[in-house]
From TrEMBL:
UniProt organism field: Mobilicoccus pelagius NBRC 104925
Keyword terms, alphabetized: Cytoplasm, Gluconeogenesis, Glycolysis, Isomerase
HAMAP family: G6P_isomerase
Name listed for the protein in its UniProt record: Glucose-6-phosphate isomerase
Molecular functions per Gene Ontology: carbohydrate derivative binding; glucose-6-phosphate isomerase activity; monosaccharide binding
Reactions it catalyzes: alpha-D-glucose 6-phosphate = beta-D-fructose 6-phosphate
InterPro entries named among the record's database cross-references: G6P_Isomerase, G6P_Isomerase_C, Phosphoglucose_isomerase_CS, SIS_dom_sf, SIS_PGI_1, SIS_PGI_2
Enzyme class per UniProt: isomerase
Gene3D superfamilies reported for this sequence: 1.10.1390.10, Glucose-6-phosphate isomerase like protein, domain 1
Biological classification of the source: Bacteria, Bacillati, Actinomycetota, Actinomycetes, Micrococcales
Localisation per UniProt entry: Cytoplasm
């Protein structure tokens, strides 16, 4: 295990502190005095065009951030990740989600610990694709011979957020006549609502769980199994235990790294798709966890998605840091968090199809970098993991943008938009996509350049209201554009944020691939369950606040 380099002890950090101290951010002036600023700070990565020029950085700051990357040995750690070294030190695992999207035949082959990773990945992919084709073509049927019309993915966290986000994002690519639903929450409402109106004979369930131990997923899998059998019995199409196994075999498949546990659950391992412990849950949408997607959008589109991921991987792996978009964006985030004291980071896609993208990024970024110890167990030496959040524009404009424009906090924001509309609608003569994009362009300009008191007065505003109508500007934003929201572009976007997260983790000395912080709550929930069910001893073992809450529950529960 290499000891992380303390970023705060580097020469670059000292330089950055100094630059921050003397910085007088003024994007209006910076742009006026430097007509090349936008061009110099705009980059391309695969199909993405990324404009960093509206961030609060000077050339000196960018140079110092790049020095910081050198000093913490970013490229060495990146190369170690791609090579399959065990950089997830607290779990002693390789981190190889990038191997999931290596094209067939890529040379040299990736062999880790004597295992040919490329062969393993493509064998599984081929199996997923073959199964997906069978479902899509109607060759795979339910127990009564009817074709599958609804696929329900049961999973949580990384086994849910990726699939649901991509499913929503790529709606135009979903096969007609196929609907996918997603059950994640152990709130029984989720199963109840997600199975509402479904025909058991035409429904396929995919139980997706890396560990196959997750309480929510296994509970929901059992509930849906019971639902399936009850409904098939009710319809009179199966009867008796003997036919249950057949029904489960035709209506349940699984995705997991623990195929033995899949078998224990009663799902035929023949109908299970595996992956490996070197894929973190939140990095797994491009593994067999994406089976629901391969069915929904088809193997060819799924392959395009993977190709997009790979294109961004190659950009990150091979591009010099000065032009390396994930590296620059990750370093900028470090600047925003540690020097500008930004506590949050907004992601604002101008695409309704990306409405689950911020939620997806929350797990990716916050489960990865929400840590206060480094990978060697020592405390971190600076602020880490900012809170990611967001909503699609323009909805957010009419809700929370007020705070970004005129509040007292720094909220760096990523704006994402696509040139090509998915639906080229017209309102009279007006192209609605252009109205939409005009907002995208306007917001980052407004945030950067603001509006002075004199400009407000020039509009004839009454003096007493002038201060309320001034916009200070100098609010940092990044604009990301792509030709269209295709499977490939979506893959590029996801990989971009994966690598940004990695870069931040390396600077902070964090193991971005474990998630021990989710364990305590899980353990306590197990301990508390008997108390909730009314066991006095278990109840009295709880703290007074928890006892009070459980008593409230027990008094008010009627059913
Ligand atoms: O509890 C957190 C977590 O482990 C996530 O990291 C993971 O994505 C999720 O639970 C689901 O885990 P699994 O796929 O093993 O069911």
């Amino acid at each position: 295990m290499t000891t992380p380099i303390d970023p705060t002890e580097t020469t670059a950090w000292e330089k950055l502190s100094e630059l921050e101290l003397h910085m007088d951010p003024d994007l209006r002036r910076w742009f006026e005095q430097d007509p090349q600023r936008a061009e110099r700070l705009s980059f391309t990565a695969a199909d993405l065009f990324v404009d960093l020029s509206k961030n609060l950085v000077t050339d000196d700051i960018v140079a110092a951030l790049l020095d910081l990357a050198q000093e913490v040995k970013l490229t060495e750690r990146r190369d170690a990740m791609f090579a399959g070294e065990r950089i997830n030190v607290t779990e002693n695992r390789s981190v190889l989600h990038t191997a999931l999207r290596r094209p067939k035949g890529m040379t040299p082959e990736l062999v880790v610990d004597g295992q040919n990773v490329d062969e393993d990945v493509h064998a599984t992919l081929d199996k997923v694709y073959a199964f997906a084709e069978k479902v899509r073509s109607g060759e795979w049927t339910g127990v009564t011979g009817k074709r599958i019309e609804t696929v329900v993915n049961i999973g949580i966290g990384g086994s849910d957020l990726g699939p649901v986000m991509v499913y929503e994002a790529l709606q135009p690519y979903v096969q007609e006549g196929l609907e996918c639903r997603f059950i994640s929450n152990i709130d029984p409402t989720d199963v109840a609502e997600s199975t509402r109106g479904l025909d058991a004979e035409t429904t396929l369930f995919i139980v997706a769980s890396k560990t196959f131990t997750t309480l929510e997923t296994l509970t929901n899998a059992r509930l849906t199994k019971a639902w399936l059998l009850e409904n098939l019995e009710k319809a009179g199409v199966i009867s008796g235990e003997a036919q249950h196994a057949d029904a489960v075999a035709k209506h349940f498949v699984a995705v997991s790294t623990a195929l033995d546990k899949v078998a224990d659950f009663g799902i035929d391992p023949e109908n299970a798709f595996g992956f490996w412990d070197w894929v973190g849950g939140r990095y797994s949408v491009d593994s067999a966890i994406g089976t629901v997607l391969a069915i929904a959008i088809g193997p060819a589109n799924f392959a395009d998605l993977l190709a997009g991921f790979h294109a961004m991987d190659e950009h990150f792996r091979t591009t010099e840091l000065e032009k390396n978009v994930p590296a620059l964006m990750g370093l900028l985030n470090v600047w925003n968090v540690d020097f500008l004291e930004a506590e949050t980071h907004a992601v604002l896609p101008y695409s309704q199809y990306l409405h689950r993208f911020p939620a997806y990024l929350q797990q990716l970024t916050m489960e990865s970098n929400g840590k206060s110890v480094r990978w060697d167990g020592a405390p971190v030496t600076c602020l880490t993991g900012e809170v990611f959040w967001g909503e699609p524009g323009t909805n957010g404009q009419h809700a929370f943008y007020q705070l970004i424009h005129q509040g007292t906090r720094v909220v760096p924001a990523d704006f994402i938009a696509f040139a090509e509309p998915a639906h080229p609608l017209k309102d009279g003569d007006a192209d609605v996509h252009e109205l939409f994009l005009a907002n995208f362009f306007a917001q980052t300009a407004a945030l950067a350049f603001g509006k002075t008191a004199d400009e407000v007065r020039a509009e004839g505003t009454e003096e007493s209201v002038v201060p309320a109508r001034v916009f200070d500007g100098d609010k940092p934003t990044t604009s990301i554009m792509a030709p269209a929201l295709t499977p490939s572009v979506l893959g590029q976007l996801i990989a971009l944020y994966e690598h940004i997260t990695f870069v931040q983790g390396v600077v902070w000395g964090i193991d971005s691939f474990d998630q021990w912080g989710v364990e305590l709550g899980k353990q306590l929930a197990q301990q508390i369950t008997p108390a909730v069910a009314g066991h006095t001893e278990a109840l009295e073992a709880q703290d007074p606040s928890t006892q009070g809450l459980i008593r409230y529950y027990r008094t008010h529960r009627q059913g």
